[in-house]
Amino acid sequence: MCPSSAHGAHCEFPQLETERCSCVKSAGTCGYKVLSPYDQRGEIGYDLARAYWGQGIMREALQAVIAYSFTQLDLNRIQAYVLTENARSIGLLRRLHFETEGVLREYRRFKGEFSDWVLMALLKKDWQS
Question: Which CATH architecture has domain 4-128?
Answer without folding.
Answer: 3-Layer(aba) Sandwich (3.40)
